[in-house]
Amino acid sequence: MFKVLSTVLVIFLSTFALAEAKNACNIVVVTTGGTIASRYDPITKGLLPADTGEQLLEAVPQLKDLDCKITIQKFSQIDSSSMTPLLMKKLGDTVEGLLAKKDITGVVITHGTDTVEESSYFLDLFIKSKKPVVFTASMRGAGDLSPDGPKNIYDAIRTVASPYAYDKGVMVVINEEIHAAREVTKMHTANVATFASPYWGAIGYVEPDRVMFRRQPINRQNIKPKEIVEDVYLIKAFTGMNSDIFDYLAAKKVKGVVIEGFGRGNLPDTAAAGVKKMLDAGVVVILTTRVPTGRVLDTYSAPGAGRPLKEMGAILAGEISGQKARIKLMLALGVTKKKKEIEKYFDDIGR
Ligand code: ASP
C-alpha cells in the first residue's frame, strides 16, 4: 500500500515539476508598431503599421520548438518616428509592471528602427529590474521579399530566454547582433545591417545553436522620476552658426537644451552669447558632440569652445550622443532641478 502511494506521489510531483519546467521560461512580447509590423498600403502608397502581435509570431513557426511560454501585449501601432518621451515613460511603466511578476522571465519589445536607440536607452535608465529586456525591429516590411522581422523576433526571444541575459541592461537585438541600449545607433537608412555600437561594438551575437555574450555593460545608471520633463531641445552645431536659435530658446525659457557641438564640444564664437543667454534664463544646457564617438572635454578656450561654455555653466555630456543625452536630461530633470545633481548624472568618470 505504502509503495503504491509513494509511486502515485512521485508521479504527481514529477508531473508538477514538468509543468513548472515548461513555464520556467515565460516571455511577454510587447508590440509598438514600426516597419517590423508594416505592410505596403495601396491607398497611401507606402508602408504603414498593420500586423498584429499574433501575426508577427505566426511568421516565426520555430518558436513552437522553444520551451517557452510566449504571450503578446499590444502597446501601440505606430511608426517609431511618432514615439514620444511620454509614450516611452508609459512603455517603461508597462514593462516594469511585467518584470515585477515573479513568473516572467523577461520582455521583448517590437519597435521601429528610427527611434529604437532612444526608447531602449530610456528604458535602460528607467527600469531597475535586472531581468532581460530586448528591443527588436526590422528594416524590411512584413510583406516585403525576404523580411528580416521574423528572424529578429526569433533571436530577440532566444536572447531573453538565455540564462546569460540577466543583468545586461536593456538590449537591442537585430541582424544577429546584441547591442547595449546605451551604445547602439542607427547607421544606414535602409540596409538590414544598420545597427552598430560605434567604437565599442556589440555585446554579443545570436548563433543557430546558442546566444553568445562577449561583454558586460558596466555602471548602469538608474534615473526614476515620477514625471519626466519633455521640454528639452536638441540642437546641432553648424559652420557659421550664430546665437539666433539660442536667443529664441532663452526667450521661450525652455527647460533644457542639448547641443551637439563640433569635435571635443565646441561652437563657433558667434554662438557663445546665445548659450550665455540660455543659462542666464535658467535653461539647463548640456554639451555633447556631433562626432559619433569620444568624450567632450574642456580642451579649447576660444569664446565658443568647451572651456568657456563649461565655465558659463554648460554641463559636459561625456560620450553619449545628442539624442541619448536628451533622453537622460528629460529623466534627470524629473528628479532634480539642481545643476550639481544633474551634472552628476552626466559625469562619465567610471561610467
Ligand atoms: N519608419 C520606421 C519606424 O521607425 C522604420 C523602421 O521601423 O525600420 O517605425
Task: List strands and helices in order, with pairings.
Layout: H1 2-22, E1 26-33, E2 38-41, E3 46-49, H2 53-58, E4 69-78, H3 85-99, E5 106-110, H4 116-126, E6 133-136, H5 149-161, E7 171-174, E8 177-180, E9 185-186, E10 195-196, E11 204-206, E12 211-213, E13 232-236, H6 244-252, E14 256-261, H7 272-280, E15 284-289, H8 306-312, E16 315-316, H9 322-335, H10 339-346
In short:
With 351 residues, this protein is α/β, with parallel strands linked by helices.
Could you characterize the architecture of this molecule?
- Helices cover 32% and strands 21% of the residues.
- The chain is α/β, with parallel strands linked by helices and 351 residues long.
- The model is unreliable at 13-21 (pLDDT under 50).
- It has helices at residues 2-22, 53-58, 85-99, 116-126, 149-161, 244-252, 272-280, 306-312, 322-335, 339-346; strands spanning 26-33, 38-41, 46-49, 69-78, 106-110, 133-136, 171-174, 177-180, 185-186, 195-196, 204-206, 211-213, 232-236, 256-261, 284-289, 315-316.
- It is elongated, with a radius of gyration of 23 Å.
- It has an 8-stranded mixed beta sheet, with helices on both faces. The chain has a 4-stranded parallel beta sheet with strand order 13-14-15-16, with helices on both faces.
- It contains 10 helices and 16 strands.
- The chain binds aspartic acid (ASP).
